[in-house]
Amino acid sequence: MTAAPLVETATPLVEARNAGLSYATRRGPITAVDAVSLQIAPGECVAICGRSGSGKSTLLALLGGLCAPTTGHVFFSGRPWTSLRGHETQAARAEQIGFLPQESVLLPGLRVLDNVMLPQLIAGRSREAACARAESLLARVGLFERWDAYPAELSGGQQRRVALARALATEPRLLLADEPTNDLDALAEQEIVRILADVKAAGTTAIVVVTHDPAVAAIADRRLWMECGRLMAAAAQPVIERPAFERPTSSTNEPADSQAAAFELPPAALIPQLPTVESTGWWRTAIPFVLGLGVAAVALGGIDRFVARRQQQVVETIRQQRRLAEEMALQDLRADVDDVATAGGGAFTATLFLENFRPDRELYVLGPATGVAVQRGGRWESLPTATGPAAAAEEIREVAADRLLIPVAFTLPDGPYDELLRGYVHVRISAAMVVSDRGDGEGDLFERSDAYFIYLRDPRLTEDDIRAANGWAAKAAVPLWIAMPAH
């Protein structure tokens, strides 16, 4: 089978020209994408299908500029991704491209509504307009009533629907969707397909969707098949119930039954090697030792069995108590950054909160002991901190349904700082505490350590400086701090 023909468009929105991506392994290089040429016109919908591991998700990442090709070029709006400067790349992704990856990318410290509003605020929309758009999209994906839920409180399918709403929030020119109906039930799947069909019908957003779902593939203007990193044309026949795709025929170098294989073939450049065990002679010395233990066990038979049963009971009791303590510390206790305020002159106060999700079960904490660090020169530099009198590390306190607030004051030193987002300082706030079900400190104890990462606005810069550095609109919101997922 030949590669998919390059469909010429007058003004392609995104284009790949012999684009490829390879990476090295211990047993040889692996080519994830192999010399792909593809043009996507504005408003066009293209479905890419293929077996797992064929390179579909990597191709989406190349088209969206999330990674650079090792061969060939990828263009967006006529310009190679590699020629764009940092703020130009950020602006293009924030304002013109919607991403829906397979994994959940929702920020865990933000509510559902805030997750959908965030890309709009970065793109320069007012808070009122962003909120109205977010509410409309959440209603469209059936999650308006869960607007104040955190991602951890939603199922995998619900998180995926929120991620779709966020991908469409800025009304992007290009939507890159990787398995948009994954983890959804049949009715929710039909609704997502309808939403994608509506977006396609509007004609303002080009869609490139990776899917195994025939219903999603059926709405596409073109359907392509990907195999071993190469893009191929789908069979030219109408789709009735399930779209049919032409599968590549086996080459002379492949076994005759390779077409019937249930999974993808290994990369051709990978050197074959059978699994090996690190050590081979340990059993020669282990056999006499095991036999000796067996003789001793027979001699002590009755006593050992009695002792073993008692030990097993004790161990099981300890395990149950340990599981209860872990559940209480990791599931019942919610902890995160509540807010960050500035006192001027580089002084800030970060307020952490502790909350008991199971108020019917008593929960106590010792601490937390807090710390703050700023990233400079590729390393984390610890800063002096001060906590309020209610947050003394040696105090045991009960955590109830009402949030327990822990203020942590710190002052940023003079720059320079490492900037992952222009104009923002990368800050890590840590909290270590001991959790118990008793207030006297004698119950089952479990130590919990958390790290919260935020982007904190550089106090030396004005809001206009930060807008200019990132290429944001003149009236774009410049938040004091932005929560980041753990990393």
Summary tags:
30% strand; 487 residues; 10 helices; Rossmann fold; six-stranded mixed beta sheet; globular; six-stranded antiparallel beta sheet; Immunoglobulin-like; single chain; alpha+beta; 3 domains
Describe the structure.
With 487 residues, the protein is an alpha+beta fold. The chain is globular and about 70 Å long. The protein has a six-stranded mixed sheet, with helices on both faces. Strands 13, 14, 16, 18, 19 and 20 form a six-stranded antiparallel sheet that branches. Strands 2-1-4-5 form a four-stranded antiparallel sheet. It folds into three domains: 14-250, Rossmann fold (3-Layer(aba) Sandwich); 284-290 and 297-328; 331-484, Immunoglobulin-like (Sandwich). It has helices spanning 56-63, 86-96, 112-122, 127-140, 156-167, 186-202, 214-218, 282-299, 301-332, 463-470; strands spanning 14-25, 28-40, 45-49, 71-76, 79-80, 97-100, 174-178, 206-210, 222-227, 230-233, 333-344, 347-356, 364-376, 379-383, 385-387, 396-398, 404-411, 424-436, 445-457, 481-484. Helix 3 (112-122) crosses helix 4 (127-140), helix 3 packs parallel to helix 5 (156-167) and helix 4 (127-140) packs across helix 5. Mean pLDDT is 78; it is low at 236-263 and 276-286. Helix 6 (186-202) links the parallel strand 7 and strand 8 (206-210). The protein contains ten helices and 20 strands.
